[in-house]
Structures are given as C-alpha cells and as structure tokens.
Amino acid sequence: MNEIALLIAATIASGTPIALAGLGLLLNEKSGVLNLGAEGMMLIAAVAGFATAFLTGSDLLAFAAGAAAGALAAAFFGVLVIWMNTNQYATGLALSLFGGGFSAFVGAAYVGKKLGERVPFEVPFLADIPFVGPALFKQHPMSYITIGLVLAVAWFLYRSRAGLVLRAVGESPESAHALGYRVRWIRLGAVMAGGALCGVAGAFLSVVYAPLWVEGLVAGRGWIALALTTFATWRPMRVLLGAYLFGGVTMLQFHLQAQGVEIASQLLAMLPYIATIVVLALISRNPAWIRINMPASLGRGFHPNS
Amino acid sequence: MTDIVKRRLLSWAGLCAIAATAALVGCGKKDEPAPTAAAPVASAAAAAPAPKPEPLKAAWVYVGPVGDAGWTFAHDLGRKEAEAKFGDAIKTTFVEKVPEGADAERVIRDLATQGNKIIFATSFGFMEAMLKVAADFPDVKFEHATGYKTAPNMRIYDASFYQDTYMAGVIAGKMTKSNTLGFVGSFPIPEVLRNINAYTLGAQSMNPKVKVKVVWVNTWFDPAKEGEAAQSLINQGADVLLQNTDSSAVLQTAEKNGKYAFGWDSDMSMFGPKAHLASAVANWGPYYIKAIEDLKAGTWKTERTVWGVKEGMNDLIKIGDMVPEDAKKRVEEIKAGLKDGSFEPFTGPISDNTGKERLAKDTKADQAWKDKIDFYVKGVDGKVPTGK
Amino acid sequence: MLKLEVRPQPSKLMSLASPLLALALTALFAALLFVMLGKDPVRGLGAYFFEPLNGVRAMGEVALKATPLILCALGLAVCYRSNVWNIGAEGQFLLGAISGGGMALWLTTAGVTGPKGLYAPLVLLAGMAGGAFWAAITAGLRDRFNASEILVSLMLVYVAQQLLNYLVFGPWKDPAGFNFPQTMTFDASTWLPSLWTGTRLHWGFPLALLLVGLFWLFMFRSWRGFQLQVGGLAPAAARYAGFSARSALWTAMLTSGAMAGLAGAMEAAGPLRQLTPHVSTGYGFTAIIVCFVGRLHPVGIVFSGVLLSMMLIGGELGQSRLGLPNALTGVFQGLLLFLLLACDTLIHYRVRISKSGIKATMKARAA
Predict the structure, then answer these.
(1) How many domains does chain A have?
(2) For residue C331, what are the β-bridge partners?
(3) Considering the domain B55-158 in this protein, what is its CATH number?
(4) CA-based angle A82:A19:A200, to the nearest 5?
(5) For A47-75, what is the mean pLDDT?
(6) What rounded mean pLDDT belongs to chain B?
(7) Quick one: A34 exposed, middle or buried, by C-beta within 10 A (0-12, 13-18, 19+)?
(8) Which residues span the domain enclosing A255?
C-alpha cells in the first residue's frame, strides 16, 4: 500500500517539469505560434538556473533566472517568427539546436558542481495522513505551484478578457487585427510567457529534480512536452493529466523492473510512449472536438499589411 | 532610394559575400601547405644546433563529453596525467562525443592520417571501426578499451570494476537495515552484469540475507531518469544503492531520502555527505603512461591487459566514517588480497538465481568465465533483460 | 525606422543570394567566436568549410553522411508539402535498419552467400517495407482515430529505439560476441558495393541522386504530386476539387516512411555491416532541418544535405585539429539556420527605411 503512495508521489514529481513546459507551449500555441524549440529553451534555462543557484544559493533567484532565460530565448524566436515571418517549424528547430550547443558551451564550467543542502518539503499536518499524506503532500513547492499555474492559465484563457483576446488572435489574427488589437505584440507576449514557463521547467530540472548540470540534461523532455500539447487538445487541465500519465507510466515501469517482473527492460521502457499513443487515440476519436480546440491559425504567419 | 539602385546594391552585397567566403576559404587553403613548407626549412635550420625530437602524437577518442564528470572525464584525467608525465615529448589530442556508429571510423581514420602514432578508443562501440582503420595503418598503434577483438597493431585494455563493486557490496551488506540493496544499471552488457553480481556476492559475504533489486535506465547518462530509477528502488525498500550510470543523481536521490549510496567513476562524496559510503573510481593514467612507454621503447605488442586494484587501475576510495570498523577492515583485507593475487571475488560455489550452479566450490573464476557472465547470481531479483 | 513591406513578387535574386548571405554571416560570427576563444579564425573556418572537402576520401565521407539525410529529407518534403507533419522519421529510419538488418541477418544465418552485393537490393527493399510499416501505424491512427501524427510519430521514435535495443541485446545478439549488444557481421553478399575505392562511399549515393530526380518529377510534374501540394496549401480547395485528404495522408506517410527506412537499411548494410544500438546518430531529426533549409525542394535538399553533413564532420575536425569544443557544432548549425531563415524573409519582403507614424503621414499629406 505504501508503495503505491510512493508511486503516486514519484509520478507527480516526474510529471511536474513536463507539465510546466507543456503549459508554456500551450500558451504559445493558443496565440497561433508553434514553438518547436522547447528543448533548446529548457536547456538554456536549466544552465541559467543552475548557475544562478550555484552562485547565489537562492532557489527563487534560480527559478527567476530560468524564467528570464526562457523568455529571452523565446523573444528571439518570436521576433524572427512574428516580425520577419520566418517558417515557424524551422525556426523552432533552429532554436532547439542552438540551445543545445549554447547550453553545453556555456555550462561547461558548471559540470560537477554541487548546490547547497535542501530540506525536503512537507505540507504540515496534511503530510501525516496515512497514504494520502506521503502520496500527495510531500512534494517540492513547485509541484503545487504547477497545479496552481494550470488552474490560473485555464481561468485566464476561458474566463478573462485578456484570454479571450489571446484565443481570438490564435483563431483568426486577421479579424483580431481588424478589431484593432495589436496582434504581433500579443503573440510576442504569449511566446515570451510560454518561454518563461518552459524556462521554469528547465530550471526545476537542474536545480531541484536532478539537481546538477550536464549537457543534454533535459534529455528530450521538451519534445515530450510538445507532443503533450497536442495530446491535451490544447486544454490546460489535460496538459497536466497528460504529464502525470507520462510520468506515472515511466515510474511504473521502473517499479515493475525493481519488482523483478520478467519482461525485458527495453520492452517495459516502451510503455510510457505506447500508453500516451493509446490514450491519445481514444480521446481523439471525435474530430469535431479537435477542430473546436485547435487554434485555427496555428503555424501560419501573420503580416498586418498583407 | 529607387528600386534599381537597391537591386544593384543587393547584387553587389551578394557578390561581396561570395568573394569574402572564397577569400577566407582560399586563405585557409594556403595556411595548410605553408606550415609544412616551413617545417622542413625550420627543422633543417634547427638540425644544425641540436635536433629536437618530434613530439610523439597521441590521440584519444571519447564517446561522451569530457564534462560528464564520469566515464569520459576519468579517461581525460588519464590523458592529462600522461601529458604531465611526458611533457614536451608527446602531443595529445582528443575528440569527444563521437557516436559509436559509422562516424567513429571517420574520426579514427582522420586521427591516424594526422600523424598520431597511438590512438586510444574509450568505449566498446568503437571496436569494429577501429579494427577497420587498423588494417589500413600498420604503423599506428591502436588501443581499444573494454573490447575483445585484436589485430597485429591493435590491442585491448580493461579495468576490473567488479573488484570495486564487490568491496562496495561488503560495505552495503553491513550498512543495510532492510536487507534490500538497489542497483541502477545502464545497459545489460557483460561488464554491468559482472558488477551487479560482484556487488551481490560481496554483500552476501557479510550478510547472507541480502537481496538486490535492479532497474535498467537504458542510457549511460540521463540524471533525471537515474534519479527516478533510484527513487523507485528506494520506494521498494532498497536502502543502499549502487549504480553503473555516470551522474551523481543516484547518490543525490539517496541523500534526499536519507538512504545510502556509492559514487561511481569519480569521487562523489560532496554530492551526498550523509549518504556517501564510498566511491568506486577509475584511474586510467598509469595504463596510458605504460602504453606510451611501450611504444617509445619499442616493446609494444598485441595483448589484452586487464588491470585492477593491484595495478591501481580502479579502486574504492573515500570510505565514509559511518561505515563500521569491521567492514572497513574487511575491505582493507580484500584490497591486500587483490594486490597479492590471493583473493578473487568470483570464487565458487556460485549459482545463478534460477538455481543452476555456475561455478564449482572453491574454484576461482578465470577471465574467460568472467567475460561470459550473462546471468544474475542468486539473490538478485528478476531476469537479465536479454530475452533468454 | 525599418519596415518590412511585402514584395509584389518574390525576389529571384534573394532566392539565390540569401543562403550565401546567411553562410557568409555565419562564417563571420564563427570567426568572431574563434577569436574570442583564442583560436585562429582562418584555421577554424577552414576546419568547418574546407577540410571536409579536402581530398577524395573526405568528399566521399561528406557524401556518405549526406546520403541518409537526403533520402529522409526527400520523403519528409513530400509530407510537409502535403501538410502532414511527420516528426518520426528517426523511428522509421530505425525500423528500416531493423528490417533491412534483419533480412541480412536471416540470409547470413541461413548460410546464403554470393558475390559481394548480390542481395543488397533485397536488404534495401526490406528496409523500405519496415520504414513504411512504421509510418503506416502513424497514418492509421490519424486516419481511424484522428490522433495527431506529430505526437504519434514522435512517440514511435522512442518505441523504435527500445525495440532496436531489445533486439540487439536479446534475440539477435551475436552468440560469439561475448554478450555485447551487436549482431554478427552480415555476409558480404548483403553489403552495399562500394562506389569508389579508397572511400566508404557506396551505391546508395547515386541511388539517392536518382531518387532526387524521381521526386522532382513526382512533386512538380505528376498529377498525384500536384494533388498533394494543393492539399497542403489550400485544403478547402483540394476538398472541393475532390482530392482525397485521406489518400494524401497515406501516400505522404508511406513515402516518407519508405525513404527513411531505405536510409536506415543503407546505414546498416553500408558502412556498418551489422546492427548495433547506434545505427542512427539522429539522422531522422537532422533530416527535418535539411528539408527546411532545402526549402522542401529536392534539388535544394541535396545542397542542404551536403552542407549539414559538412558542418557535422567539420565539428569533429574542429575538435581534432584545433581543440574546439564539440558544443560549437550545435551553435553553428542553429545560427546558420536562424540566419538562413532571416535572410529568406528578404525574398518575400523588402526592407524599407521609412518614417511612419502620424507626424510623418501628416507631413507626407501636406507635401
């Protein structure tokens, strides 16, 4: 019984960085911009966050640095894609490539460095409840902040005027422009906000989850997060669920290995990916549902004078 | 500005760009022949006063980044030791992050063409590539780590990490309270299976009730995943962890959970001051120095060199204060036994975890037996993921 | 203030000049970076742009590395032009290596032998079938369940990697291989015959060039190709014209899967001659970049394949000749791509220095 509680706890921890990055990408995509550079942004932010944490000893500053680094990288991408109308897919890929090399280059000085002691966090009182306590209430604060952010983004998108404008920009930038909204600046804002969230995810990996820096630390989680926004059909709550599904099955396959289950570890390692595909197939069966939720202008550029 | 003027400007800019690139490339071309043309002149001039011998060029091929603080880092330290020892007499080069596929052949061939007289390839996956290049460069010496194929100018070298894991097991057997140990494995290659089995045997020698759980991450390096694997082992009751992956994540996860773990490839004591029991380290310097000395002295011959604690190739160091005295003493005894050749971690009777006997009573395993390990010994949970 | 204005027609000059401009700017940045690192900038640039082509063997290596990139990118170009976003070329490549390698292994263990290269076409066909099969899973899930091909194809990449691991660590492991994860070496009859002595270049390269020509014909001179492109550019118009989106999906996915599979089988039967976990060095993903840099055009893909191949090889040479860190290759590739994309903007837009805003408009009106 206790093992299942621990498995749930591990699932939440494992899913948090993916959920954060997925949330950021969702914001991007709601405004109509597809950013394939998530991996690069997360890597740059991871090295920035680690360096900050190492030099200042403050986790808060590290997360801020990660967010800033992510936003900056995203801004660079945004200017290219929004103002110069470069191909979104290619520019995003370039960002991933560049981010990988740049983070390795800059981070070379921080390999093998260690951050300060960290006290494990527990929610007082609630953490002592049997089963539920260790399952849900012994997470790093960022896990709870992530859930809060998901709810905040959902509220923002569907209950606030600003969110409505953002979604309008994503559905039809031409109409939004005709209404007088500054489409390109709104898109840039969404891209930078998305970059900031990816940055926090990257910093979380290097400062809390690992916690260390080596090149390639993110190890493909940026791509998983990208896939998750599609999986989530662009609804924030589903991003969280998708991240937990993925993280959960990953931890489950380790759990099964440690149990001594006699299936080859490579086949078990396929499980998280197969599970994601299966669930996606099940929830995507209604094409109308996808059409409703996918931002219509996703991936297409916009020029105010064209 | 009119359109025509702009168009002219653009075409000039384009032409200038092309010309600039051509000029740069052309300059690059001139650079290469120039030094070699200058060299004979220089050496002729230098020949008169006192001929300085050309430094011996040695090259290393790494599978990972030198900044991994793990496997490649240890090899690079060895390279630097050789550099320090021989000073101006050698000139070293290295290429890192070489994929173990078709690209490796190109890199090794290029290094051989560049005048390197001895090339070290530090990962198993370079074996076939190195063999192909060795056939084409008979006067270059090729050294391959952890492999098994040789040629008249290619030989192999390896360490005996299982000695370290046996000693780690001895400590783990004493430190464990739950009688469950954990191992985070990278890939189920023979070396890692050897290490797991030695860990188990060492632990059982101090504590016969011990069981070992293994989780494979199918990568050499993914700190987040290593941490997750470690966490899942801890969640199932393991309280002393060992790893064969390259980062400190396993140790750090143990520290976070108040359990114990070992460092791997380098001294990781600072990553988990309360959790760190000892670090298993590799020390490739002495072998690299010997290999280069062999080459200089003309005594280089094809052979398989497997060194261990005796020759200082690997060791278990920085044993923590929390380890009880009897365990420390046993480790010292084992080290002495390894150094004088009287102790062999794989001494029979050994059965695998299906009950089949693999080594008879009182028999000391030879290198061939150790090379062929494809099973888990009794006490390890699960089946080796090879589909057998 | 700099403003971007749409050109009435795309500029032909910039179409040709923009890649050169981007290359020149990248070289400039690179030189600056080398100087900052304390390395000789000329030798540094030489390592990336000159050394990879220095000599027959070197050019053979560039062509060898470019071949799988070009093959994968050709298939992906068809996909992307049809608006089918196949990101899983890497997985299809691996399946091609597995099925091609599997065929070669089967022939070798069955004792079948013959002159060098006799059964290579069989191996390649098996590879194409394997890659197409993997792509068919993605196509089928999109067709039947509307599952996004971006996600499915990407997830299948990881599944394919684990499948390869499983096979070489398990059932296909060389029994005489001391338990290391590799298959036995394939019989010479299954090898791809070498094209030029003294290089590792094999017949795959001319085959790739032939396919470039075929794809050009397909995309720009065939009815089916036309249908696919219209479907990608204007889906509503395509539906109105009766072009089936469903058959476009299957054509695109199966084609790109087959091409990626072909590339995978070529790698296994060409330079490697066995299966190991390291058959691919990310060719499927790099091919996506090659595809875009080549502007989704078969001829452009050849050039961008060669260029990226040079940069990758240059990265190795930079390390061994100058001690440059490996991370720089990623930086340069990303930078080149950024600059290329930025310069490409100049094809459709022109830069105009103009005074905008109310004051300027008033002034203009008053004048």
Answers:
(1) 1
(2) none
(3) 3.40.50.2300
(4) 65
(5) 92
(6) 83
(7) buried
(8) 2-293
Contact C181, C173 (CB under 8 A): yes
What is the residue-averaged pLDDT of chain C?
85
**A151: domain CATH number?**
1.10.3470
Q: State the best of B103, B119, B132, B372 to mutate against chain C, taking most chain C CBs within 10 Å.
A: B103
Tokens 């599970």 belong to A275
CA distance B163 to chain A (A): 24
When comparing pLDDT for C292 and B327, which is higher? B327
pLDDT of residue B21: 47
> Interior CA angle at C59 toward C289 and C66, to 5°?
25
- Is the pLDDT reported for residue A29 higher than 50? yes
pLDDT 10s digits, B85-124: 998 889 999 998 888 888 899 999 989 988 999 999 998 8
* Closest CA in chain C for residue A301: C345
- β-bridge mates for residue B280, sequence order: B264, B316
Is C337 in Cβ contact with A97 (below 8 Å)?
Answer: yes
Q: Is residue A151 part of a domain?
A: yes
> How far apart, in whole angstroms, are the C-alpha atoms of residue A46 and residue A67?
10
CB of A107 closer than 8 Å to CB of A50: yes
Evaluate whether ipTM surpasses 0.85.
no
3-state SS, one letter per residue, for B174-187: HHCCCCEEEEEECC
Helix axes C283-293, C89-109, angle to 10 degrees: 130
**What's the rounded mean pLDDT across residues B59-67?**
87
Low-confidence winner among A242-251, B60-69, B316-325 (lowest mean pLDDT): B60-69
Rg (CA), chain C: 23
Inter-chain touch A90–C292, beta carbons under 8 Å: yes
Which positions in chain A touch B69 (Cβ < 8 Å)?
A: 111-112, 214
pLDDT in tens, C237-269: 888 888 888 889 999 999 999 999 999 999 998
DSSP H/E element including A61: helix A59-78
Q: List, in sequence order, every residue forming a beta bridge with C352; answer none if it has no partner.
A: C3
Q: Are B141 and B117 in contact (CB under 8 A)?
A: yes
Residues from chain C contacting residue A274 (CB–CB below 8 Å): 155, 159
pLDDT exceeds cutoff 70 at A187: yes
Cα–Cα distance for residue pair B63/B71, rounded to 1 Å: 9
Q: What does pTM read for this prediction?
A: 0.84
pLDDT of residue C157: 93
User: Which among A83, A94, A52, A87 is positioned nearest to A69, based on CA atoms?
Assistant: A52
- Partner-chain contact A260 B381, CB within 8 Å: yes
Question: How is domain B161-281+314-371 classified at the CATH fold level?
Answer: Rossmann fold (3.40.50)
Residue A304 forms part of a structural domain? no
> Residue B218: which of A212, A216, A269 has the nearest Cβ?
A269
Alpha helices for B32-148 (secondary structure H): 33-47, 71-86, 102-113, 127-136
Which residue from A minimizes the CA distance to B268? A112
Task: Kindly write down the DSSP assignment for every residue of C127-145, as one continuous string.
Answer: HHHHHHHHHHHHHHHHHHH
